[in-house]
Amino acid sequence: MNFQKKATAPATAGVPLTPMIDVVFLLLCFFVTSQIFAQWETEIDVALPTASTGAVPQRLPGEVIINVLADGTAVVNGQALDDAALRAMMDRLVELFPGQPVLLRADKATDYEHVVRILDTCRQADIWNISFATLAPGS
């Protein structure tokens, strides 16, 4: 005699949600992590000069990138700033974050006077932690 009942399959087999939630969570982690690398502010119009000793430095937290276009326009966070607006922004940065790092990305066709003007504005705002962006040869 067989006293065991036959196992019956459930009438409605649903979609297992746990694996789908895991996949969505992993995708969310991937996109949040990749967004950090997308935050490099690089102007398309800036062609950096090359240097034989140039290397890709580690980005510093909160580093401000100042792009200097070929015509001398300073661009920060996608906004073109004149000298007064750039100085006001730098003054606020120094007030809030002393020792604020700044990365200066000047186009290789930019006149030297424009780079010196931006450096002078940084110095007037008491910003001393300045780096210059270059490319390695063949890049």
Write up this protein.
- A five-stranded mixed β-sheet has the order 3-2-1-4-5.
- The protein has a domain of 69 residues: Nucleotidyltransferase, domain 5 (2-Layer Sandwich).
- With 139 residues, it is an alpha/beta fold.
- It is elongated, with a radius of gyration of 26 Å.
In short:
The protein has 139 residues and is α/β, with parallel strands linked by helices. The protein is 35% helix and 14% strand. The chain contains three helices and five strands, in the order H-E-E-E-H-E-H-E.
The helix fraction, in percent, is: 25-40%
Question: What is the global morphology?
Answer: elongated
**Discrete helix count:** 3
- Helix/strand structural class: alpha/beta
Question: In sequence order, what are the helices and strands, one letter per element?
Answer: HEEEHEHE
Percentage of residues in DSSP E strands: 5-15%
CATH architecture of the domain at 64-132: 2-Layer Sandwich
What is the radius of gyration computed over CA atoms, rounded to a whole number of angstroms? Answer: 26 Å
Uncertain runs: none
Examine the coordinates and then state which fold CATH places here, giving the name of the CATH topology of the domain at 64-132. Nucleotidyltransferase, domain 5
Largest sheet: 5 strands, mixed
Q: How many DSSP-defined strands?
A: 5
Biggest sheet, spatial arrangement of strands? 3-2-1-4-5
Mean pLDDT: 81
The CATH class of the domain at 64-132: Alpha Beta
Distance between the termini: 81 Å
